[in-house]
Amino acid sequence: MSSRPFMLRPAGLGLLVLMLTLSADQLSKYWILYGLDLPARGSVKVLPFLNFTMVWNHAVTFGMFGGLGGAGRIVFSAIALAVACCLLVWIFRTPSKLTAACVGAITGGAIGNVMDRVRYGAVVDFLHAHAFGWSWYVFNVADSAIVCAVCMLLVQNFLAGGQQQDNVKTG
């Protein structure tokens, strides 16, 4: 057992990032829905390359599996919660603070989207990036956290893989 305070251990950091991600996601969605009243406004220009555009996502990433109808809400939520449970185990088992933080962000984002499905029947998406005739899918803070954290894990894995190769050659 470590004598370090819990928040300085990887699991503590992972849970902190999970809670920060979940809070930022849910607070941003609350403001979009009830502060800005985006459902009534449809779309609001924020920057030349960014709008707040209201989209109720009844499917998963990029609208995939949208044909499941009302059952999709239950199926997607159950799968996301099962994945979140597995990710929590990973947070508590990893010795790496960076891995714990990344997995915490992914878990917080997944839980945030599940909360939307339970509360509203769909995920609240509102960030719409666009420039030079190019337009990306509408997404939210949870989606952003998940994508950024997965990218960080891939970079970490790539860099660690290079170190492992060096150890094999010299070892």
Automatic annotation (TrEMBL):
It catalyses: Release of signal peptides from bacterial membrane prolipoproteins. Hydrolyzes -Xaa-Yaa-Zaa-|-(S,diacylglyceryl)Cys-, in which Xaa is hydrophobic (preferably Leu), and Yaa (Ala or Ser) and Zaa (Gly or Ala) have small, neutral side chains. The keyword Transmembrane applies. Its EC number is 3.4.23.36. The active site is at residues 125, 143. It is found in: Cell membrane. GO terms for cellular component: plasma membrane. The chain crosses the membrane at residues 74-92, 134-155. It holds the Pfam family Peptidase_A8. GO terms for molecular function: aspartic-type endopeptidase activity. GO terms for biological process: proteolysis. This is Lipoprotein signal peptidase.
